[in-house]
Amino acid sequence: MSRWPEPAARMLHAPTPVTSFVGSSPVMGPGTSATGSPVADLVVSALGKSFEPGTPVLSNVHFQVATGQRVALIGANGAGKSTLLRCCMHLIRPDAGEVRLFGTPLGGLDAQALRRLRAQVGFVFQKHNLVPRLSALSNVLHGALPRAPLARAWLQSLAPAALREEAMLCLERVGLTHIALRRADKLSGGQSQRVAVARALMQRPRLIVADEPAASLDPVAGDEVMSLFSGLVKDEGLTMVFTSHDLVHAVKYADRVIALQRGEIVLDALSHEIDVAELRALYA
Amino acid sequence: MPEHTATPAPRVLPDRFERTSPTSFMLWLIVLGFFAWSVNKTGVSFSDLWGGIPQMTRLVGEMLPPSTARLEAVGWALLETFQMAFVGTVVGVLLSVPIAVLATPHLSPHPLVYHAARNLIAFFRTVPDLVWALLFVVSVGLGPFAGTLAIVIDKIGFCGRFFAEAMEEVDRGPQEALSAMGASRLSLIMCAVFPAAMPSFINTSLFSLEKATRSSVVLGLVGAGGIGIELKVAMDLFNYDEAATIILAIFALVVLVERLSALLRKKVM
Fold it and tell me: Same structural domain for residues A47 and A111?
Protein backbone atom coordinates (compact mmCIF):
# COMPACT_ATOMS: atom_id res chain seq x y z
CA MET A 1 0.00 0.00 0.00
CA SER A 2 1.29 3.41 -0.82
CA ARG A 3 2.34 5.58 2.13
CA TRP A 4 1.23 8.62 0.20
CA PRO A 5 -2.41 7.94 -0.63
CA GLU A 6 -3.66 11.49 -1.15
CA PRO A 7 -2.67 14.01 -3.78
CA ALA A 8 0.65 15.51 -2.80
CA ALA A 9 -0.58 19.09 -2.87
CA ARG A 10 -3.06 18.42 -0.12
CA MET A 11 -0.72 16.29 1.92
CA LEU A 12 2.08 18.83 1.86
CA HIS A 13 -0.09 21.23 3.78
CA ALA A 14 -1.31 18.70 6.34
CA PRO A 15 -0.91 20.19 9.84
CA THR A 16 0.53 17.03 11.36
CA PRO A 17 3.07 14.49 10.10
CA VAL A 18 1.45 12.60 7.31
CA THR A 19 3.16 9.32 7.89
CA SER A 20 5.50 7.84 10.39
CA PHE A 21 7.77 4.90 9.88
CA VAL A 22 7.71 3.86 13.54
CA GLY A 23 6.39 0.36 13.82
CA SER A 24 6.00 0.09 10.10
CA SER A 25 8.21 -2.62 8.71
CA PRO A 26 8.62 -1.41 5.10
CA VAL A 27 10.39 1.73 6.28
CA MET A 28 12.44 0.05 8.95
CA GLY A 29 14.53 -1.72 6.36
CA PRO A 30 18.00 -2.30 7.73
CA GLY A 31 17.10 -0.72 11.04
CA THR A 32 15.62 -3.80 12.53
CA SER A 33 17.45 -5.58 15.31
CA ALA A 34 18.13 -9.32 15.48
CA THR A 35 15.12 -9.70 17.75
CA GLY A 36 12.90 -7.98 15.25
CA SER A 37 12.43 -4.82 17.35
CA PRO A 38 13.16 -1.52 15.67
CA VAL A 39 16.57 0.06 16.34
CA ALA A 40 16.69 3.85 16.10
CA ASP A 41 19.98 5.76 16.08
CA LEU A 42 18.17 9.05 16.30
CA VAL A 43 14.83 9.73 17.94
CA VAL A 44 13.37 13.23 17.88
CA SER A 45 10.26 13.84 19.97
CA ALA A 46 8.10 16.96 20.15
CA LEU A 47 11.07 19.16 19.29
CA GLY A 48 10.53 22.91 19.33
CA LYS A 49 12.82 25.86 18.81
CA SER A 50 12.34 29.57 18.30
CA PHE A 51 14.93 32.31 18.12
CA GLU A 52 12.37 35.08 18.58
CA PRO A 53 9.28 34.83 20.77
CA GLY A 54 6.17 33.95 18.79
CA THR A 55 7.99 32.83 15.65
CA PRO A 56 8.88 29.15 16.03
CA VAL A 57 11.53 27.78 13.70
CA LEU A 58 10.61 24.23 14.69
CA SER A 59 7.43 23.09 16.35
CA ASN A 60 6.42 19.66 17.55
CA VAL A 61 8.82 17.76 15.31
CA HIS A 62 8.74 13.98 15.69
CA PHE A 63 10.72 11.41 13.74
CA GLN A 64 13.04 8.48 14.18
CA VAL A 65 15.91 7.29 12.05
CA ALA A 66 16.60 3.57 12.09
CA THR A 67 20.12 2.18 12.02
CA GLY A 68 21.39 1.90 8.47
CA GLN A 69 18.68 4.14 7.06
CA ARG A 70 19.38 7.09 4.77
CA VAL A 71 17.02 9.99 5.37
CA ALA A 72 16.74 13.21 3.39
CA LEU A 73 15.31 16.34 4.98
CA ILE A 74 13.87 18.72 2.43
CA GLY A 75 12.10 22.04 2.57
CA ALA A 76 12.29 25.61 1.37
CA ASN A 77 14.78 28.13 2.77
CA GLY A 78 13.86 28.92 6.35
CA ALA A 79 11.83 25.72 6.76
CA GLY A 80 14.06 24.76 9.70
CA LYS A 81 16.21 21.97 8.18
CA SER A 82 19.62 23.22 9.35
CA THR A 83 18.25 24.23 12.75
CA LEU A 84 16.77 20.75 13.11
CA LEU A 85 20.10 19.08 12.33
CA ARG A 86 21.91 21.34 14.81
CA CYS A 87 19.27 20.68 17.46
CA CYS A 88 19.74 16.94 16.89
CA MET A 89 23.41 17.33 17.94
CA HIS A 90 22.58 19.97 20.58
CA LEU A 91 24.82 22.43 18.74
CA ILE A 92 21.69 24.53 19.21
CA ARG A 93 19.73 23.77 22.37
CA PRO A 94 16.05 23.05 21.61
CA ASP A 95 13.41 24.89 23.63
CA ALA A 96 11.10 21.88 23.87
CA GLY A 97 11.08 18.18 23.25
CA GLU A 98 13.78 15.57 23.37
CA VAL A 99 16.54 14.17 21.18
CA ARG A 100 17.83 10.65 21.77
CA LEU A 101 21.08 9.73 20.11
CA PHE A 102 21.90 6.01 20.10
CA GLY A 103 19.32 5.61 22.84
CA THR A 104 20.71 8.33 25.12
CA PRO A 105 18.67 11.51 25.73
CA LEU A 106 20.92 14.52 25.11
CA GLY A 107 19.00 16.86 27.42
CA GLY A 108 20.57 16.07 30.76
CA LEU A 109 24.10 15.25 29.60
CA ASP A 110 27.14 17.12 30.88
CA ALA A 111 29.62 18.54 28.36
CA GLN A 112 31.92 15.52 28.42
CA ALA A 113 29.16 12.96 27.93
CA LEU A 114 27.72 15.04 25.10
CA ARG A 115 31.15 15.16 23.44
CA ARG A 116 31.43 11.36 23.69
CA LEU A 117 28.12 10.97 21.86
CA ARG A 118 28.93 13.58 19.25
CA ALA A 119 32.18 11.73 18.55
CA GLN A 120 30.08 8.97 17.00
CA VAL A 121 28.44 11.35 14.55
CA GLY A 122 30.23 12.63 11.46
CA PHE A 123 28.79 16.06 10.70
CA VAL A 124 29.44 17.38 7.20
CA PHE A 125 28.64 21.03 6.54
CA GLN A 126 27.55 22.88 3.43
CA LYS A 127 30.62 25.15 3.56
CA HIS A 128 32.91 22.18 4.35
CA ASN A 129 34.29 24.02 7.41
CA LEU A 130 37.87 22.87 6.95
CA VAL A 131 40.67 24.72 8.72
CA PRO A 132 41.93 26.77 5.78
CA ARG A 133 45.66 27.05 6.46
CA LEU A 134 46.19 23.40 7.34
CA SER A 135 46.81 20.56 4.92
CA ALA A 136 44.05 18.20 3.82
CA LEU A 137 45.77 15.44 5.81
CA SER A 138 45.84 17.51 9.03
CA ASN A 139 42.17 18.33 8.54
CA VAL A 140 41.32 14.64 8.15
CA LEU A 141 43.43 13.86 11.21
CA HIS A 142 41.22 16.18 13.26
CA GLY A 143 38.52 13.53 12.96
CA ALA A 144 40.52 11.56 15.54
CA LEU A 145 40.48 14.41 18.08
CA PRO A 146 37.67 12.94 20.21
CA ARG A 147 39.56 9.66 20.73
CA ALA A 148 43.25 10.64 20.53
CA PRO A 149 45.28 13.08 22.65
CA LEU A 150 45.39 16.58 21.17
CA ALA A 151 49.15 16.46 20.56
CA ARG A 152 48.70 13.38 18.34
CA ALA A 153 45.79 14.59 16.25
CA TRP A 154 46.75 18.27 16.01
CA LEU A 155 48.96 18.32 12.95
CA GLN A 156 49.94 15.57 10.54
CA SER A 157 53.63 16.31 11.15
CA LEU A 158 53.26 15.50 14.86
CA ALA A 159 50.88 12.54 14.52
CA PRO A 160 51.98 8.94 15.12
CA ALA A 161 52.35 6.68 12.09
CA ALA A 162 49.18 4.68 12.83
CA LEU A 163 46.96 7.78 12.82
CA ARG A 164 48.65 9.19 9.70
CA GLU A 165 48.05 5.88 7.93
CA GLU A 166 44.41 5.84 8.99
CA ALA A 167 43.97 9.42 7.78
CA MET A 168 45.58 8.53 4.45
CA LEU A 169 43.21 5.57 4.18
CA CYS A 170 40.26 7.91 4.69
CA LEU A 171 41.65 10.20 1.98
CA GLU A 172 42.07 7.18 -0.26
CA ARG A 173 38.40 6.30 0.18
CA VAL A 174 37.43 9.71 -1.14
CA GLY A 175 40.08 9.49 -3.88
CA LEU A 176 42.31 12.34 -2.69
CA THR A 177 45.62 10.84 -1.53
CA HIS A 178 47.42 12.89 -4.18
CA ILE A 179 46.52 16.18 -2.49
CA ALA A 180 47.19 15.07 1.10
CA LEU A 181 49.65 17.88 1.81
CA ARG A 182 47.84 20.60 -0.11
CA ARG A 183 46.44 23.40 2.02
CA ALA A 184 42.68 23.24 2.49
CA ASP A 185 42.20 26.77 1.12
CA LYS A 186 43.87 25.72 -2.15
CA LEU A 187 41.37 22.93 -2.84
CA SER A 188 38.39 23.11 -5.19
CA GLY A 189 34.89 23.04 -3.72
CA GLY A 190 34.41 19.37 -4.59
CA GLN A 191 37.80 18.41 -3.15
CA SER A 192 37.09 20.36 0.05
CA GLN A 193 33.82 18.53 0.55
CA ARG A 194 35.53 15.18 -0.05
CA VAL A 195 38.13 16.08 2.57
CA ALA A 196 35.28 16.95 4.93
CA VAL A 197 33.77 13.52 4.24
CA ALA A 198 37.16 11.91 4.91
CA ARG A 199 37.37 13.83 8.19
CA ALA A 200 33.96 12.49 9.15
CA LEU A 201 35.07 8.95 8.26
CA MET A 202 38.17 9.40 10.44
CA GLN A 203 35.78 9.70 13.38
CA ARG A 204 34.70 6.08 12.71
CA PRO A 205 31.11 7.32 13.00
CA ARG A 206 27.89 5.36 13.38
CA LEU A 207 25.79 8.18 11.99
CA ILE A 208 26.57 10.71 9.25
CA VAL A 209 24.74 14.03 9.36
CA ALA A 210 25.18 16.31 6.37
CA ASP A 211 23.78 19.81 5.99
CA GLU A 212 23.30 20.45 2.27
CA PRO A 213 26.57 18.71 1.39
CA ALA A 214 26.23 19.45 -2.32
CA ALA A 215 24.76 22.95 -2.15
CA SER A 216 27.98 24.87 -2.75
CA LEU A 217 29.14 22.57 -5.55
CA ASP A 218 28.44 22.53 -9.26
CA PRO A 219 25.99 19.82 -10.42
CA VAL A 220 28.70 17.35 -11.45
CA ALA A 221 30.74 17.75 -8.25
CA GLY A 222 27.52 17.69 -6.24
CA ASP A 223 26.49 14.38 -7.83
CA GLU A 224 29.96 12.95 -7.21
CA VAL A 225 29.91 13.92 -3.55
CA MET A 226 26.40 12.57 -2.99
CA SER A 227 27.20 9.31 -4.75
CA LEU A 228 30.41 9.02 -2.70
CA PHE A 229 28.44 9.64 0.48
CA SER A 230 25.79 7.15 -0.41
CA GLY A 231 28.33 4.47 -1.35
CA LEU A 232 30.35 4.90 1.83
CA VAL A 233 27.26 4.86 4.00
CA LYS A 234 26.04 1.68 2.32
CA ASP A 235 29.43 -0.04 2.46
CA GLU A 236 29.95 0.76 6.12
CA GLY A 237 26.35 0.12 7.17
CA LEU A 238 26.12 3.65 8.56
CA THR A 239 23.05 5.73 9.15
CA MET A 240 22.75 9.00 7.28
CA VAL A 241 20.59 12.10 7.62
CA PHE A 242 21.12 14.87 5.11
CA THR A 243 19.37 18.03 4.05
CA SER A 244 19.09 19.00 0.42
CA HIS A 245 17.36 21.40 -1.90
CA ASP A 246 17.96 18.99 -4.75
CA LEU A 247 14.84 16.84 -4.84
CA VAL A 248 16.43 14.41 -7.28
CA HIS A 249 19.30 13.88 -4.84
CA ALA A 250 16.84 13.45 -1.99
CA VAL A 251 14.89 10.72 -3.77
CA LYS A 252 17.93 9.09 -5.37
CA TYR A 253 20.27 8.89 -2.38
CA ALA A 254 17.84 8.48 0.53
CA ASP A 255 15.61 5.61 1.56
CA ARG A 256 13.17 8.03 3.09
CA VAL A 257 12.27 11.68 2.67
CA ILE A 258 11.03 13.99 5.39
CA ALA A 259 9.70 17.38 4.29
CA LEU A 260 9.58 20.40 6.53
CA GLN A 261 7.42 23.45 6.04
CA ARG A 262 7.53 26.40 8.43
CA GLY A 263 9.16 24.23 11.08
CA GLU A 264 6.70 21.34 10.91
CA ILE A 265 6.92 17.96 9.25
CA VAL A 266 4.43 17.84 6.40
CA LEU A 267 5.62 14.70 4.70
CA ASP A 268 7.42 11.55 5.77
CA ALA A 269 7.55 8.85 3.14
CA LEU A 270 9.70 6.25 1.45
CA SER A 271 11.62 7.75 -1.43
CA HIS A 272 10.53 5.16 -4.00
CA GLU A 273 6.93 6.16 -3.37
CA ILE A 274 7.56 9.84 -3.98
CA ASP A 275 7.03 11.72 -7.20
CA VAL A 276 9.66 14.45 -7.49
CA ALA A 277 7.36 16.68 -9.50
CA GLU A 278 4.83 16.69 -6.66
CA LEU A 279 7.51 17.51 -4.10
CA ARG A 280 8.06 20.79 -5.89
CA ALA A 281 4.78 21.98 -4.36
CA LEU A 282 6.76 22.41 -1.14
CA TYR A 283 8.65 25.25 -2.72
CA ALA A 284 5.60 27.00 -4.13
CA MET B 1 -0.83 75.95 -25.45
CA PRO B 2 -2.05 72.77 -23.74
CA GLU B 3 -2.51 73.09 -20.00
CA HIS B 4 -2.28 69.38 -19.11
CA THR B 5 1.50 69.17 -18.85
CA ALA B 6 2.68 69.71 -15.28
CA THR B 7 5.19 72.48 -14.89
CA PRO B 8 8.46 71.02 -13.62
CA ALA B 9 9.68 72.45 -10.35
CA PRO B 10 12.41 75.02 -10.87
CA ARG B 11 15.83 73.46 -10.50
CA VAL B 12 17.36 74.58 -7.22
CA LEU B 13 20.96 73.77 -6.44
CA PRO B 14 21.36 72.13 -3.05
CA ASP B 15 23.37 73.90 -0.35
CA ARG B 16 27.06 73.12 -0.38
CA PHE B 17 27.13 72.67 3.38
CA GLU B 18 24.51 71.66 5.91
CA ARG B 19 23.36 74.44 8.20
CA THR B 20 25.20 74.11 11.51
CA SER B 21 23.02 73.73 14.59
CA PRO B 22 23.62 76.16 17.49
CA THR B 23 24.95 73.26 19.62
CA SER B 24 27.47 72.22 16.96
CA PHE B 25 28.47 75.84 16.48
CA MET B 26 29.09 76.22 20.22
CA LEU B 27 31.10 72.99 20.32
CA TRP B 28 33.27 74.16 17.44
CA LEU B 29 33.83 77.47 19.25
CA ILE B 30 34.83 75.63 22.46
CA VAL B 31 37.31 73.37 20.61
CA LEU B 32 38.80 76.36 18.80
CA GLY B 33 39.07 78.33 22.06
CA PHE B 34 40.73 75.41 23.84
CA PHE B 35 43.25 75.06 21.00
CA ALA B 36 44.13 78.76 21.20
CA TRP B 37 44.53 78.56 24.98
CA SER B 38 46.72 75.40 24.63
CA VAL B 39 48.94 77.14 22.06
CA ASN B 40 49.42 79.94 24.56
CA LYS B 41 50.09 77.61 27.53
CA THR B 42 52.59 75.43 25.62
CA GLY B 43 54.60 78.52 24.70
CA VAL B 44 54.44 77.95 20.96
CA SER B 45 56.39 80.85 19.51
CA PHE B 46 57.42 81.35 15.91
CA SER B 47 59.92 84.01 16.93
CA ASP B 48 61.64 81.54 19.28
CA LEU B 49 61.64 78.95 16.50
CA TRP B 50 63.15 81.47 14.11
CA GLY B 51 65.65 82.55 16.74
CA GLY B 52 66.63 78.92 17.36
CA ILE B 53 67.71 78.29 13.78
CA PRO B 54 71.29 79.56 14.30
CA GLN B 55 71.59 77.38 17.42
CA MET B 56 70.32 74.36 15.49
CA THR B 57 72.76 75.08 12.66
CA ARG B 58 75.61 75.29 15.19
CA LEU B 59 74.47 71.97 16.76
CA VAL B 60 74.35 70.23 13.38
CA GLY B 61 77.78 71.70 12.62
CA GLU B 62 79.18 70.24 15.83
CA MET B 63 77.59 66.88 15.07
CA LEU B 64 79.39 66.63 11.74
CA PRO B 65 81.33 64.59 11.05
CA PRO B 66 80.00 61.91 13.42
CA SER B 67 82.68 60.57 15.75
CA THR B 68 84.01 57.07 15.24
CA ALA B 69 86.02 57.07 18.48
CA ARG B 70 83.59 54.89 20.46
CA LEU B 71 82.20 52.90 17.58
CA GLU B 72 82.73 49.53 19.27
CA ALA B 73 81.00 50.60 22.50
CA VAL B 74 78.11 52.05 20.51
CA GLY B 75 77.87 48.79 18.54
CA TRP B 76 77.61 46.70 21.72
CA ALA B 77 75.02 49.07 23.20
CA LEU B 78 73.05 48.83 19.98
CA LEU B 79 73.16 45.04 20.11
CA GLU B 80 71.98 45.13 23.72
CA THR B 81 69.12 47.41 22.68
CA PHE B 82 67.99 44.95 20.04
CA GLN B 83 68.39 42.01 22.41
CA MET B 84 66.14 43.76 24.94
CA ALA B 85 63.54 44.32 22.22
CA PHE B 86 63.84 40.76 20.91
CA VAL B 87 63.61 38.97 24.27
CA GLY B 88 60.90 41.34 25.49
CA THR B 89 58.83 40.79 22.36
CA VAL B 90 59.20 37.00 22.27
CA VAL B 91 58.32 36.59 25.96
CA GLY B 92 55.54 39.19 25.70
CA VAL B 93 54.01 37.49 22.65
CA LEU B 94 54.13 34.06 24.29
CA LEU B 95 52.50 35.36 27.46
CA SER B 96 49.87 37.33 25.60
CA VAL B 97 48.52 34.26 23.72
CA PRO B 98 46.84 32.57 26.73
CA ILE B 99 45.69 35.93 28.11
CA ALA B 100 44.20 36.79 24.71
CA VAL B 101 42.33 33.46 24.63
CA LEU B 102 40.77 34.35 27.99
CA ALA B 103 39.92 37.79 26.59
CA THR B 104 38.08 36.38 23.54
CA PRO B 105 34.33 36.29 24.26
CA HIS B 106 33.47 32.91 22.75
CA LEU B 107 36.64 31.17 23.97
CA SER B 108 36.76 32.49 27.52
CA PRO B 109 35.52 29.97 30.10
CA HIS B 110 33.44 32.51 32.03
CA PRO B 111 32.28 36.14 31.58
CA LEU B 112 34.13 37.14 34.77
CA VAL B 113 37.38 35.68 33.43
CA TYR B 114 36.76 37.47 30.13
CA HIS B 115 36.29 40.85 31.82
CA ALA B 116 39.30 40.32 34.11
CA ALA B 117 41.53 39.44 31.12
CA ARG B 118 40.24 42.40 29.08
CA ASN B 119 40.87 44.83 31.95
CA LEU B 120 44.35 43.45 32.60
CA ILE B 121 45.27 43.91 28.94
CA ALA B 122 43.79 47.42 28.93
CA PHE B 123 45.78 48.33 32.06
CA PHE B 124 49.05 47.02 30.58
CA ARG B 125 48.37 48.92 27.38
CA THR B 126 47.37 52.27 28.85
CA VAL B 127 50.38 52.69 31.16
CA PRO B 128 53.28 53.85 28.91
CA ASP B 129 56.36 51.61 28.65
CA LEU B 130 58.55 54.40 30.07
CA VAL B 131 56.51 54.30 33.28
CA TRP B 132 56.83 50.49 33.44
CA ALA B 133 60.61 50.94 32.97
CA LEU B 134 60.76 53.41 35.89
CA LEU B 135 58.88 50.93 38.09
CA PHE B 136 61.13 48.03 37.11
CA VAL B 137 64.32 50.09 37.58
CA VAL B 138 63.16 50.65 41.15
CA SER B 139 62.28 46.97 41.69
CA VAL B 140 65.03 45.04 39.83
CA GLY B 141 67.67 47.76 39.54
CA LEU B 142 69.31 49.62 36.67
CA GLY B 143 70.15 47.74 33.50
CA PRO B 144 68.66 45.92 30.52
CA PHE B 145 66.58 43.48 32.61
CA ALA B 146 64.35 46.33 33.78
CA GLY B 147 63.90 47.47 30.17
CA THR B 148 63.16 43.94 28.99
CA LEU B 149 60.48 43.54 31.65
CA ALA B 150 58.93 46.86 30.62
CA ILE B 151 58.80 45.65 27.00
CA VAL B 152 57.22 42.33 28.07
CA ILE B 153 54.40 44.12 29.88
CA ASP B 154 53.92 46.59 27.04
CA LYS B 155 53.73 43.71 24.52
CA ILE B 156 51.13 41.85 26.57
CA GLY B 157 49.01 44.98 26.45
CA PHE B 158 49.53 45.43 22.72
CA CYS B 159 49.48 41.85 21.43
CA GLY B 160 46.83 40.71 23.93
CA ARG B 161 44.33 43.09 22.42
CA PHE B 162 45.11 42.37 18.77
CA PHE B 163 45.39 38.60 19.26
CA ALA B 164 41.97 38.56 20.98
CA GLU B 165 40.46 40.58 18.13
CA ALA B 166 42.01 38.26 15.55
CA MET B 167 40.60 35.18 17.29
CA GLU B 168 37.21 36.82 17.55
CA GLU B 169 37.14 37.52 13.82
CA VAL B 170 38.18 34.11 12.46
CA ASP B 171 35.57 32.07 10.61
CA ARG B 172 33.51 30.10 13.13
CA GLY B 173 32.76 27.29 10.65
CA PRO B 174 35.78 25.07 11.43
CA GLN B 175 35.17 25.61 15.15
CA GLU B 176 31.56 24.46 14.75
CA ALA B 177 32.77 21.43 12.79
CA LEU B 178 35.20 20.38 15.52
CA SER B 179 32.62 21.08 18.19
CA ALA B 180 30.10 18.90 16.34
CA MET B 181 32.55 15.98 16.30
CA GLY B 182 32.97 16.17 20.09
CA ALA B 183 36.36 17.91 20.26
CA SER B 184 37.26 19.63 23.54
CA ARG B 185 37.54 23.40 23.89
CA LEU B 186 41.34 23.17 23.97
CA SER B 187 41.35 21.09 20.77
CA LEU B 188 39.07 23.61 19.16
CA ILE B 189 41.41 26.49 20.06
CA MET B 190 44.58 24.68 19.01
CA CYS B 191 43.23 23.07 15.83
CA ALA B 192 40.75 25.61 14.46
CA VAL B 193 41.36 29.02 16.05
CA PHE B 194 45.17 29.30 16.17
CA PRO B 195 45.85 28.16 12.59
CA ALA B 196 43.22 30.57 11.24
CA ALA B 197 44.48 33.49 13.35
CA MET B 198 48.17 32.72 12.75
CA PRO B 199 48.77 35.27 9.93
CA SER B 200 47.38 37.99 12.15
CA PHE B 201 49.46 36.74 15.11
CA ILE B 202 52.64 36.85 13.06
CA ASN B 203 51.83 40.26 11.59
CA THR B 204 51.14 41.72 15.03
CA SER B 205 54.27 40.10 16.52
CA LEU B 206 56.53 41.52 13.81
CA PHE B 207 55.00 44.94 14.23
CA SER B 208 55.57 44.56 17.99
CA LEU B 209 59.25 43.86 17.39
CA GLU B 210 59.54 47.06 15.34
CA LYS B 211 57.76 49.00 18.06
CA ALA B 212 59.88 47.41 20.81
CA THR B 213 63.10 48.29 18.97
CA ARG B 214 62.07 51.95 18.87
CA SER B 215 60.93 52.03 22.49
CA SER B 216 64.00 50.18 23.82
CA VAL B 217 66.09 53.14 22.65
CA VAL B 218 64.08 55.50 24.86
CA LEU B 219 64.04 53.15 27.86
CA GLY B 220 67.78 53.66 28.30
CA LEU B 221 67.11 57.31 29.19
CA VAL B 222 65.65 56.15 32.53
CA GLY B 223 68.44 53.67 33.15
CA ALA B 224 66.68 50.61 31.82
CA GLY B 225 69.59 49.50 29.62
CA GLY B 226 70.32 49.85 25.93
CA ILE B 227 71.76 52.61 23.80
CA GLY B 228 69.55 55.33 25.25
CA ILE B 229 71.88 55.89 28.18
CA GLU B 230 74.83 56.33 25.75
CA LEU B 231 72.86 59.02 23.93
CA LYS B 232 71.98 60.79 27.15
CA VAL B 233 75.60 60.80 28.36
CA ALA B 234 76.87 62.06 25.00
CA MET B 235 74.33 64.91 25.00
CA ASP B 236 75.01 65.80 28.66
CA LEU B 237 78.78 65.98 27.98
CA PHE B 238 78.21 68.06 24.80
CA ASN B 239 79.82 65.30 22.71
CA TYR B 240 77.49 66.06 19.82
CA ASP B 241 79.60 64.25 17.24
CA GLU B 242 79.30 61.08 19.31
CA ALA B 243 75.55 61.71 19.75
CA ALA B 244 75.27 61.92 15.95
CA THR B 245 76.90 58.50 15.63
CA ILE B 246 74.45 57.04 18.13
CA ILE B 247 71.45 58.62 16.38
CA LEU B 248 72.61 57.26 13.02
CA ALA B 249 73.17 53.82 14.58
CA ILE B 250 69.64 53.86 16.02
CA PHE B 251 68.26 54.90 12.64
CA ALA B 252 70.12 52.04 10.92
CA LEU B 253 68.85 49.50 13.48
CA VAL B 254 65.22 50.62 13.22
CA VAL B 255 65.30 50.62 9.42
CA LEU B 256 66.95 47.18 9.37
CA VAL B 257 64.34 45.70 11.70
CA GLU B 258 61.50 47.27 9.69
CA ARG B 259 62.88 45.91 6.41
CA LEU B 260 63.41 42.42 7.82
CA SER B 261 59.95 42.49 9.36
CA ALA B 262 58.37 43.55 6.05
CA LEU B 263 60.26 40.75 4.27
CA LEU B 264 59.10 38.12 6.75
CA ARG B 265 55.54 39.45 6.65
CA LYS B 266 55.46 39.15 2.88
CA LYS B 267 56.78 35.59 3.09
CA VAL B 268 54.27 34.51 5.72
CA MET B 269 51.23 36.15 4.11
Answer: yes
